[in-house]
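Duplicate of #3305? Posting structure anyway:
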């Protein structure tokens, strides 16, 4: 795939910003971290903004509207781009049960599915599951994981919340805190059956939660990494608390 390199410094692009040919054909401008920041179709006189020079460089005035650059919740257009760029993906060691992540995109979130191959119990013991399902007893608390992994861009934060349809059945699904900028890995879920008498059956591949991506008002100086004391970077499967 041909890449085009922006040579001009601007308030919104750093020198050396790279654009994929496919993205340009779709009318999407990407910044230096391969995040969609504007749509060519929404710009006035887009021909004045890009001048293709020997199929290698993009140069132009780059006077850009801030319409699509503000902080806020990412919509479905951006979420589809995120999937294409690997912000949400299936790890190589987990093919998942749904072939097309794009089918799980809602107007402001992406549904994530349950990995039902292991469970961490409240006493911190880990149990392997062979039937790809688990019966959650009344009041029981466990840790499980999503099939999908995320690789959060450095100027976004992820928020994971349970599905409304499951909450109405008494199933609490939580991901403690934000999914920090720079975090990469599968999502460990804290799951509890709030019912007093009824079991809840959990099945591998079921839509268990949804992730929302919010663009930050400013890019943080540092990101989530083991080098900065963050212990869950790169986690795979249901992961116990670091100090257990």
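Output from current build:
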């Amino acid at each position: 795939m041909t890449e085009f390199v922006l040579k001009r410094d601007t308030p919104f692009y750093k020198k050396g910003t790279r654009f994929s040919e496919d993205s340009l054909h779709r009318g999407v401008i990407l910044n230096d971290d391969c995040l969609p920041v504007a749509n060519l179709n929404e710009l006035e006189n887009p021909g004045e903004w890009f001048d293709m020079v020997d199929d290698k460089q993009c140069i132009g005035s780059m006077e850009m509207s801030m319409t699509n650059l503000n902080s806020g919740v990412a919509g479905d257009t951006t979420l589809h781009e995120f999937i294409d760029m690997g912000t949400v993906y299936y790890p190589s060691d987990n093919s998942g049960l749904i072939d097309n992540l794009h089918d799980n995109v809602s107007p402001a979130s992406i549904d994530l599915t349950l990995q039902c191959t292991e469970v961490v119990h409240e006493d911190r013991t880990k149990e392997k599951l062979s039937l790809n399902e688990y019966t959650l007893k009344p009041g029981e608390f466990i840790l499980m994981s999503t099939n999908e992994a995320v690789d959060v861009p450095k100027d976004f934060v992820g928020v994971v919340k349970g599905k409304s349809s499951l909450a109405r059945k008494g199933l609490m699904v939580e991901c403690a805190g934000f999914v920090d900028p720079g975090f990469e890995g599968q999502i460990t879920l804290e799951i509890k059956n709030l019912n007093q008498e009824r079991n809840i059956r959990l099945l591998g591949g079921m839509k268990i939660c949804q992730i929302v991506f919010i663009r930050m008002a400013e890019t943080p100086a540092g990101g989530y990494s083991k080098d900065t004391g963050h212990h869950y970077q790169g986690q795979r499967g249901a992961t116990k608390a670091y100090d257990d």
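Confirmed duplicate; merging threads. The longest helix spans residues 76-84. The longest strand covers residues 110-121.
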